[in-house]
Specification:
- With 425 residues, the protein is an alpha+beta fold.
- The chain is built from 17 helices and eight strands.
- Strands 1-8-3-6 form a four-stranded antiparallel beta sheet.
- Strand 4 and strand 5 form a beta hairpin.
- Helix 1 packs across helix 13 and helix 2 packs antiparallel against helix 3.
- The longest helix is centred in the N-terminal third of the chain and has 31 residues.
- Keywords: Membrane, Transmembrane, Transmembrane helix.
- InterPro entries: cNMP-bd_CS, cNMP-bd_dom, cNMP-bd_dom_sf, Env_Response_Regulators, RmlC-like_jellyroll.
- GO terms for molecular function: DNA-binding transcription factor activity.
Length: 425
């Protein structure tokens, strides 16, 4: 039976090797990856509910179940954060983006920047955490009277937020308006990739904060509140535009759609060589290995514990197999973009498959020698850890890639997992 546990552990993890291979040589489209990931999340949730939760509750009661789930969630979250801080974040693209966004260089003047930007309209409704992240990314600019800040017809790769001073907006050599503290300009060209639609000239000494195109992409990825605020600003600007109403409305519809679409998720990993270098330097192979193994220890342990029973728990094994594929696919793609060699990537994931078999064997011997209460608590710990993994990695990653449409794939996966559990039970 120990051999059976080893084989089942490898079988559940074998999709890791398959997903990594596809991710390295033939990455699928984002929508397909999101659907597979959401489907796997649904099947895994069903398996946890009917193969772990129900079984532990019937055999040991609610208290061991509650204790185990809480302990599993705490352990997984704590260890995962520790591993990410020591270089393991590269194993997941979403973790890589979050790491970069949260670890921007911390200027000494963040409180003062927040104070100066407190009256900027598009920032007023943002949560404090998002305001602080934006304050880390802006560049202070001081302008003298008559200094040209934006030139009509020129490309625009940044926009300004006015802290102090006033600026005149000129279009076709005609005065349009005057901008003052709390207002922004330059965002239209940045969003639409079109030339500047007007010239902006400082009327008084000005204190501004500039956000360039690269950092603007980071902000939109992490701050949907800012995207909504900018969309409203576009609407207000166009209502006062000198263009015809019909043309303004057409532009508004097009620009708002472009703004509210998800920012290209892997932009940081493909366009910024410094970012790539920093990722590779901070991501050690050992940390990536341990982090990936941490994601699979609970699943392999449960598989091993069930291998010694008469019921094979096919729904859980299938759920693990399905959920592992998109996890390895997205991770391998992110590691490849960050400069890790194909040989290293494949060796890592094939090694995880073998180690998963060994962990399943350990789970088999554990259930063969421990008390029923201990086994139930251990399975509950594994269930809590798996739920924490789903909540912190797979489901957010699926939503980032596919948007709200992944809800249907999650529901379909849950129903399939439920059906298999009922048939096999």
């Amino acid at each position: 039976m120990a051999l059976s546990a080893f084989v089942q552990g490898m079988l559940g993890a074998s999709s890791l090797a398959l997903g990594a291979t596809v991710g390295v040589f033939l990455p699928p489209k984002r929508a397909l990856s999101a659907s597979i990931m959401a489907f796997g999340s649904g099947t895994l949730i069903a398996a946890i509910a009917f193969e772990i939760t129900r079984k532990v509750y019937e055999e040991t009661g609610f208290f061991p179940l509650m204790l185990g789930f809480a302990l599993g969630g705490i352990l997984f979250t704590t260890l995962s954060q520790y591993i990410d801080q020591h270089g393991g974040f590269l194993r997941k693209p979403a973790a890589s983006r979050r790491y970069l966004f949260e670890h921007q260089p911390q200027p000494e003047t963040i409180p003062s920047i927040l104070q100066r930007l407190s009256n900027v309209q598009v920032l007023q409704q943002l949560p404090e955490g998002e305001k602080e992240a934006i304050a880390n990314l802006v560049i202070p600019v001081h302008a003298k009277p008559k200094q040209v800040l934006c030139q009509e017809g020129e490309p625009g790769d940044y926009f300004y937020m006015i802290a102090q001073g006033e600026a005149e907006v000129i279009k076709d050599r005609k005065h349009i308006t005057v901008l003052g503290p709390g207002e922004i300009f330059g965002e239209m060209s940045l969003l639409t990739k079109e030339p500047r639609s007007a010239t902006v000239i400082a009327c008084t000494p000005m204190e501004l904060y500039q956000l360039n195109e690269e950092n603007f992409g980071q902000v939109l990825t992490r701050s949907p509140h800012l995207a909504l605020a900018l969309s409203r600003t576009l609407a207000r600007r166009l209502r006062h535009s000198v263009d015809s109403h019909v043309a303004a409305q057409n532009n508004l519809d097009r620009w708002q759609q472009q703004l509210m679409e998800p920012v290209e998720l892997d932009r940081l990993l493909t366009e910024n060589s410094q970012t790539l270098t920093r990722l590779v330097e901070r991501s050690t192979p050992v940390a990536i290995l341990v982090g990936t193994l941490l994601d699979n220890i609970p699943e392999a342990t449960v598989i091993g514990m069930n291998a010694g029973t008469q019921q094979l728990a096919w729904s859980f094994l299938l759920a693990v197999f399905i959920s592992n594929f998109p996890e390895a696919l997205s991770s391998a793609s992110g590691m490849k973009q960050a400069g890790t060699s194909k040989v290293q990537i494949l060796a890592l994931w094939f090694g995880i498959v073998i180690l998963s078999g060994m962990i399943a064997t350990f789970g088999y011997y554990l259930q063969d020698s421990a008390s029923l209460l201990f086994i139930g608590t251990a399975q509950a710990v594994a269930g809590g850890a798996i739920l924490a993994m789903l909540a912190s990695t797979m489901m957010p990653e699926a939503y980032e890639l596919g948007g709200s449409s992944v809800s249907y794939s999650t529901i379909a996966g849950f129903l399939l997992g439920f059906l298999i559990a009922m048939v096999s039970g």
